[in-house]
Amino acid sequence: MNTSAIAQELAPQGTLRAAVNLLNFLLVSSRGPAGEPQGVGPDMARAIADRLGVGLQLVPYETPGELADAAADHVWDIGLIGAEPARAERITFTSAYVEIEATYLVPPGSAIQSLEQVDRPGVRIAVAARSAYDLWLKRHIQHATLVHAEGFDATFEMFQRDGLDAMACLRPRLLTDAEKLPGSRILPGQFTTVQQSIGTHKRNTQAAAFLQQFVNEAIDSGLVARLIEQHGIRGLSVAPRVK
Predict the structure, then answer these.
(1) What does the chain look like in DSSP terms, one character per residue?
(2) Rounded distance, CA 10 to CA 208, Å?
(3) Is 14 left (phi over 0), alpha (psi -120 to 50) or beta?
(4) How far apart (Å, rounded) are the C-alpha atoms in residues 202 and 79?
(5) φ and ψ at 190, to 5 degrees?
(6) Which of 73, 125, 155, 161 is in the most buried spot, having the most CB atoms within 10 Å?
(7) Does residue 13 sit in the same domain as residue 59?
């Protein structure tokens, strides 16, 4: 594949602008000396920029919804974000390079024992607004009520304060929240797996093919696994390679 042509399409000014979602603590797990985002996501973006022979500028967003909305403004060239049908209207996604289980936390004394018991009339589910799993729940929940807050911390606070029946979140975050709420339980299994992908604008047709090839090679070569190990991330798995 002609990387010069790809670089011209993706980064015509010689710098790849890579949008990262700061809310995803598994992909952006720390900050550098100047406060720059660090982690598996930024390192994947850096590897793409290196392959293209261009510079890298990380463009941080506080939430995935803000990152997806900014696609319309063309202020980033690639976005490291969960692939969701609602976002695919503006963004072309690769297949996933990592995946994260999403499930529920229930409060002390809850009668809810399984995932199937959550989607029932009268059950209120706390969820971070416009997260990838929130978008999934909006499509699939039929009887329970979704109650939204902005970000993980605010969602957990609302879950406790308002006595909600369940909190939907990524399993690694729920492990931490469960420790803060003695007697709470994480339900076994998963209601979905959040697929973390690399997106670009619909107009970047050559670049989309290049990014898909890059993701396949990053999985096959062990790069994704090495980055997960390097940053010491628990709860993040290499996604199955798409044939």
Answers:
(1) --HHHHHHHH-TTSEEEEEEETT-TTTS-EE-TTS-EESHHHHHHHHHHHHHT-EEEEEEESSHHHHHHGGGGT--SEEEEE--TTTTTTEEEPPPSEEEEEEEEE-TT----SGGGTSSTT-EEEEETT-HHHHHHHHH-SSSEEEEESSHHHHHHHHHHTT-SEEEEEHHHHHHHHHHSTT-EEPSS-SEEEEEEEEEETT-HHHHHHHHHHHHHHHHTTHHHHHHHHTT-SS-EEPPPP-
(2) 9
(3) left
(4) 12
(5) -145, 145
(6) 155
(7) yes
Residue 18 contacts residue 49 (beta carbons within 8 Å): yes
pLDDT score recorded for residue 113:
97
Q: How many CB atoms lie within 10 A of CB 230?
A: 11
For the segment 212-233, what is each residue's pLDDT rounded down to a tens digit?
999 999 999 999 999 999 999 9
Q: Confirm whether 213 is domain-assigned.
A: yes
- Give how many domains the chain has, as a whole number: 2
Identify which of 38, 23, 136, 147 has the alpha carbon closest to the alpha carbon of residue 83.
136
Note the pLDDT tens digit of each residue in 121-180.
999 999 999 898 999 999 999 999 999 999 999 999 999 999 999 999 999 899 999 999
Is residue 88 located within the same domain as residue 204?
Answer: yes
Residue 240's CB is within 10 A of a number of other CB atoms, namely 10
Q: Between the CA of residue 201 and those of 69, 74, 88, 171, 188, what are the distances in Å? A: 12, 8, 10, 30, 37
Are 184 and 223 within one domain? no
Is 243 inside a domain boundary?
no
Domain range enclosing 40 = 3-98+195-238
Q: Is 156 inside any structural domain?
A: yes
